[in-house]
Task: inverse folding
């Protein structure tokens, strides 16, 4: 079976709608380069759309009714949204779940140092990255610094044209003969991914040059002065900071035909935004719709804000308390009877590296939303494996809505593998399958997607949320 390009069937009106939608998507990418920034942006959109925080609803103790719109935020880095349907929660929900974290470099707790008249911030890379891709490109610094008195300082340095940017240096080709003989995984060591943040030494007014030479780490001292004067940050404040180093710059159209989007963080904010857009577009649903935007997927969904935490279950339990006649089994029934699209990206077929793909079972850019029956590695290890009945149900929904989709795997059986949050949610007994967008350059500083795929995926999510469930 082969699927043709979506672009061939689009009318002029559909192309215009696709372009408009993707402009909103690019704006979301520009505003949300970290989990916290994504949550801030999404909460503002939710409140504007009439959503109420769960904690406020619990205080009011008003029973749930169809059309209620509720959201809950977890530590400012993940959130869950609900559009309440006609039936009780125990009948299950239609769930979209994506992650809003992306590969990056995190600033360490004791990061600032000087060496060779250069000031550095020490980093620890986050998620699966090819370390050599992160050198010699402009980088931005995003995140928060929380001072001992509770004051939170938000930083986003390197995005405006007047902002400074940062970078990791690379060895010049003239001296790189030994470096070039190393394996790709060893060309750049993890401890070498420190960003350069300054070169000018602090000059004490009235001091002589001979006195300055005696000063220890004058460039570091200059950086500390700038941090204090401009941001009210002292060196010890790094102890309670969450600062992320990401590629600087905005999402851009790519290609002469502008059919592609090139940007940082499309894994998995492309599915997060498409899911959010579809969720907000659904008005009066028959079956309760749920949107999960989670953190820590790139490092195994661990931690308090990852999908493996009990936060999702706890939110469902609190929500059930607002229902009339809800019993102790309502939470378990809700989870088990739900249907979910684990909204995550898949590796798009790349002709330059065709040897790692099974062409018959690969996803192609421009051919619509991708359904991935299973992920995992090699012998399906660590994967969710969606059953045939659920896939047939989804095929019917998408065909009725005229959504273009393709079925695919990540790559050749023994080439490697990867995972999503699907297997975690399947642990509740619910029906789950991965569904998202084909991506080129996955986990690189700049990833590429097809606008048509982003648009079709959003349309697929809308059709799914409107379904009545299995």
Result:
């Amino acid at each position: 079976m082969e699927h043709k390009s979506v672009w061939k069937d689009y009318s002029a009106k559909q192309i215009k709608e696709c372009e408009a939608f993707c402009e909103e998507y690019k704006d979301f990418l520009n505003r949300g380069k970290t989990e916290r920034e994504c949550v801030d942006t999404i909460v503002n959109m939710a409140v504007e759309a009439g959503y109420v925080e769960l904690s406020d609803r619990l205080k009011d103790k008003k029973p749930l009714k169809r059309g209620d719109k509720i959201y809950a935020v977890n530590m400012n880095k993940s959130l869950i949204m609900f559009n309440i349907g006609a039936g009780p929660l125990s009948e299950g929900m239609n769930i979209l779940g994506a992650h809003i974290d992306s590969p990056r470099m995190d600033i360490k707790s004791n990061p600032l140092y000087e060496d060779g008249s250069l000031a550095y911030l020490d980093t620890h890379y986050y998620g699966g990255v090819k370390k050599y891709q992160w050198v010699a490109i402009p980088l931005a610094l995003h995140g928060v610094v929380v001072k001992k008195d509770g004051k939170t300082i938000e930083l986003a340095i390197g995005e405006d044209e007047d902002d400074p940017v940062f970078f990791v240096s690379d060895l010049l080709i003239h001296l790189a003969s030994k470096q070039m003989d190393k394996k790709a995984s060893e060309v750049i060591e993890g401890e070498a991914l420190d960003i350069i943040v300054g070169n000018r030494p602090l000059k004490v007014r009235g001091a002589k040059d001979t006195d300055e030479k005696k000063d220890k780490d004058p460039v570091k001292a200059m950086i500390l002065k700038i941090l204090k004067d401009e941001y009210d940050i002292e060196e010890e404040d790094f102890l309670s900071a969450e600062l992320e180093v990401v590629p600087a710059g905005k999402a851009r159209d790519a290609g002469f035909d502008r059919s592609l989007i090139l940007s940082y963080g499309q894994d998995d904010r492309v599915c997060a935004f498409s899911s959010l857009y579809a969720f907000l577009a659904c008005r009066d649903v028959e079956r309760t719709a749920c949107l999960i935007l989670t953190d820590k997927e790139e490092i195994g969904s661990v931690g308090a804000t990852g999908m493996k935490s009990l936060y999702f279950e706890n939110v469902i339990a609190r929500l059930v308390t607002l229902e009339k006649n809800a019993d102790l089994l309502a939470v378990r029934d809700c989870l088990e009877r739900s249907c979910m699209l684990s909204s995550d990206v898949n590796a798009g077929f790349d002709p330059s590296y065709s040897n790692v793909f099974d062409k018959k079972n690969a996803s192609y850019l421009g051919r619509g939303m991708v359904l991935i029956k299973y992920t995992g590695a090699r012998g399906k290890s660590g994967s969710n494996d969606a059953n045939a009945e659920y896939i047939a149900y989804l095929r019917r929904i998408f065909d009725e809505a005229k959504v273009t989709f393709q079925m695919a795997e990540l790559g050749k059986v023994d080439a490697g593998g990867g995972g999503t949050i699907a297997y975690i949610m399947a642990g509740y007994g619910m029906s789950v399958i991965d569904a998202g967008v084909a991506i080129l350059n996955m986990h690189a500083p700049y990833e590429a997607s097809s606008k048509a795929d982003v648009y079709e995926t959003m349309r697929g999510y809308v059709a799914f949320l409107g379904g009545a469930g299995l």
